[in-house]
Amino acid sequence: MVMIARRDVFQAIADPTRRTILSLLLAQAMTPNALAEHFNSSRQAVSKHVSVLADCGLVRQEQSGREIYYHLNTQKMKEIDAWLEPFRKLWEGRFGQLDTLLDKLKKQ
Amino acid sequence: MINTLETKITRDPSGKKLIVTREFNAPLEKVWRAWTESSLLDEWWAPRPYKTETKSMDFKTGGRWLYVMVSPQGEQHFCKVSFKSIEPQKSFTAVDSFCDENGNDSGIAPSMHWYTRFQTAGDGTLVTVEVSFDSAADLEKIVEMGFQQGFTMAHGNLDELLAKY
Fold first, then answer.
1. What is the mean pLDDT of residues B156-162?
2. Which residues in chain B have Cβ-Cβ distances shorter than 8 Å to A95?
3. Which CATH code is given to the segment(s) A2-80?
4. ipTM for the complex?
């Protein structure tokens, strides 16, 4: 079950436009128009990407007065931090080697 | 021995910056040396199974470290770190980019701006690395490449494991 949920998130973020949408919403909630202004593609194309993100729970819509705002689901963002995992592994591997080296230096 | 040293990575809300923090069980002066002397960097900088080979090192403001990352198959990737400012035993800033064997930018990956700080923490040393990019898109590109590198590393480790049997 967990695997399936995860894959959804990974599929959602596999697309560069969707990753940009997430980065923008990370800074602030945005209306569909404000969001679309950041892209060359049509508003429809952008909202299609947003609905993929909404489907896997990364983005939710909220009505505020006459406007709809897209919000980032911060809880779900923890899951998306999985996209930094390989990056973390790279650093952890590197730092593990540094630990070994520092042990050697301390004995000198 | 239980390893309690945790590598923390957080993203800056701008989407253009990653902040990596890690404590090391060694005095600051030794950690500083490991980050700034090429013979020591060669021992740990490259993620396995890659190896680092220094071509030249001039650790001073305006100087650079030119090195090669060598894959187990002998594939070479030239990289350089250009030092912008240095506060001995405290911090340095630098730009890290891929280049050719003469140190000319190859542009195959976005440049990374480093701000590396060293602070004494108890008996150890806390290192904070701020890696920033020109744009959020650049950060994403690097993370994407990280995915690939992650896979390469996993394969390398598998090769190593298989070689034992």
1. 40
2. 5, 7, 22, 24
3. 1.10.10.10
4. 0.77
